[in-house]
Amino acid sequence: MAIAKAERLMNLALCLLGARRPLSKRELRGSIEAYLEAGSDDSFNRMFERDKDDLRELGLVIETVENLEGEVGYLARRDSNRLPAITLDAEEAAALGLAAKVWQQARLAGAASGALQKLRAAGLPEDVDPYGSHGALEPRIPVHEAAFEPLMLACRDRRPVVFDYRKASAAHPETRYVEPWALECWRGHWYLAGFDRERGAERVFRLSRITGKVRARGTGFTAPVPDVVTVRETVRGWAGETADRSALIRLRSGAGYPLRARATKVRELGDGWDELEIPYGHGLDAWLVEFGPDVVVLEPAELRADVVDRLRAVAKG
């Protein structure tokens, strides 16, 4: 029934847009098959009025015109139903091109490419290449996690989800019930910020630690959604970018360049090791574990313990 109605609305819209003069109800009924099959005049009138209202809600401008004989006709003028021409300068086209090139995987890649093709068909200047190179650096946002697309749709639709999540310090995953707020890419890793229903607080989840499928669960959020700036700062803090103290580590010479870039002090120890003082914030233990045997935490003691716990969890599999 939905398909039949959509087809009927499309046929009515085409009739009204293609007419050079106002068309009466009688003429429209004789031109559209679905109206010809209406059982009675009353049935047709009700159907036509509903369809006309639906088209107007969709944005079609339909004029009602009365001729000299008092007969009412309907017309959708093309100039009243045509969007203004799209004009882009070179800088705007370059920005759109960069945005399209950022996405290499997931659903957004096809959407971005299709949007640029439509802009080209709509009159994008031929001397502007939105896919061309506009600098020495070319942005890329890789999306390898299977959880990305269902979580992106859940964030868009404000739909709670459930998934199994394995913390870096845990040997086995736990089931989490989350109201997803936003996805953020931070230093090459994707994070989900949201409200954890069981814990009653906001949490950040790294997508690479989500195991199995992401399933939709119920409808409606129970907690307010913060603005995007707050979410971004939350991810930044959980990813270890907000530091309020320092940590002392030993780092193998010639390794751990990202750590060296953040170090506030570096001292050569000899025997293939250096001593670094680096900012210490939430998530630093998870980051240090990624460097494996090239890093040894000296202090503080709680950071050393957290790193050891994470390494034991990895060893347990």
- The overall average pLDDT, rounded, is 81
Strand order of the largest sheet: 7-6-5-4-8
Order of helices and strands: HEHHHEEHHHEEEEEHEHEEHEH
Structure summary, number of beta strands? 12
Main sheet properties: 5 strands, antiparallel
Which structural class should the secondary elements be placed in?
Answer: alpha+beta
Distance between the termini: 53 Å
Number of helices: 11
Helix content: 25-40%
User: What Rg, in angstroms, do the CA atoms define?
Assistant: 30 Å
Task: Please state roughly what percent of the residues sit in beta strands, choosing from under 5%, 5-15%, 15-25%, 25-35%, 35-45% or over 45%.
Answer: 15-25%
Low-confidence segments: none
Q: What is the 3D shape? A: elongated
Question: Overview of this structure, please?
Answer:
By secondary structure, the protein is of the alpha+beta class. The chain has eleven helices and twelve strands. It has helices spanning 2-18, 25-31, 33-36, 41-57, 90-102, 107-121, 148-157, 228-238, 257-262, 284-289, 301-316, and strands at 23-24, 63-66, 72-75, 161-165, 174-186, 189-196, 201-206, 210-216, 243-252, 265-270, 273-281, 295-299. The radius of gyration is 30 Å and the shape is elongated.
